[in-house]
Write a structure and sequence with these properties.
Chain lengths: 113, 117
């Protein structure tokens, strides 16, 4: 079955720590990959996206993600987190053959000041 | 630009009642989606549509119905509300084109919080 898995449900870090959130998907066809962020009390907004080309993509606020096709993964990274990064992060996959977008369960990130 | 507009923002229903969540977008997007968000479960796709007159089931369609008579509107109907349908519902839309930059980037509505008692 098609699915998107996020390995960490809740992550707590101190400011300036490095961050990596895992995302794997199960789908054999062509995909577009996304990370969305939901700040407290707000709705989802796009953090970054991968369509084609360079598998390392950079997004807003210093975030980046790397698409590794052989591992069906699209992990999100940030070298040094800030307190304002406290939010919930969702990985999403557009499945080309089926024309639908499926989300992972989300990772709640809490940054300690 | 209004973007994606959802109504109502909040609603309390009794078990067995029916209601429709409205969703409208003014960006001429072909693709529209309904998701429900539950704590710890992420967003689950209920129904989606790739254009007027075309709808498809997502991951959790049971208990819901949709229609897409126009490009702009994509209402979600709950026929017999159940407590399991207590959730926050998000409507989203995107443009088409699998390799066009910007395609498939979702624009979300503000959400509709539904409680079924």
């Amino acid at each position: 079955a098609q699915s998107v898995s996020q390995h960490n449900h809740h992550v707590i870090l101190s400011e300036a720590a490095s961050l990596e959130l895992g995302c794997n998907y199960s789908y054999g066809g062509t995909v577009n990959l996304f990370w969305y962020v939901q700040y407290p009390g707000q709705h989802l907004q796009l953090l970054l996206k991968y369509f084609s080309g360079d598998p390392l993509v950079k997004g807003i606020k210093g975030f980046e993600a790397e698409f590794i096709k052989s591992k069906f993964s699209f992990n999100l990274r940030k070298p040094s987190v800030q307190w304002s990064d406290t939010a919930e992060y969702f990985c999403a996959v557009f499945m080309n053959r089926d024309d639908k977008i499926i989300f992972g369960k989300g990772t709640r990130l809490h940054i300690l000041p | 630009n209004a973007g994606v507009t959802q109504t109502p923002k909040f609603r309390i229903l009794k078990i067995g009642q029916s209601m429709t969540l409205q969703c409208a977008q003014d960006m001429n997007h072909n693709y529209m989606y309904w998701y429900r968000q539950d704590p710890g479960m992420g967003l689950k796709l209920i129904y989606y549509s790739v254009g007027a007159g075309i709808t498809d089931k997502g991951e959790v369609p049971n208990g819901y119905n949709v229609s897409r008579s126009t490009t702009e509107d994509f209402p979600l109907r709950l026929e017999l509300a159940a407590p399991s349908q207590t959730s926050v519902y998000f409507c989203a839309s995107s443009s088409t084109g699998h390799r066009v930059s910007g395609a498939n980037v979702l624009t979300f509505g503000a959400g509709s919080r539904l409680t079924v008692l």
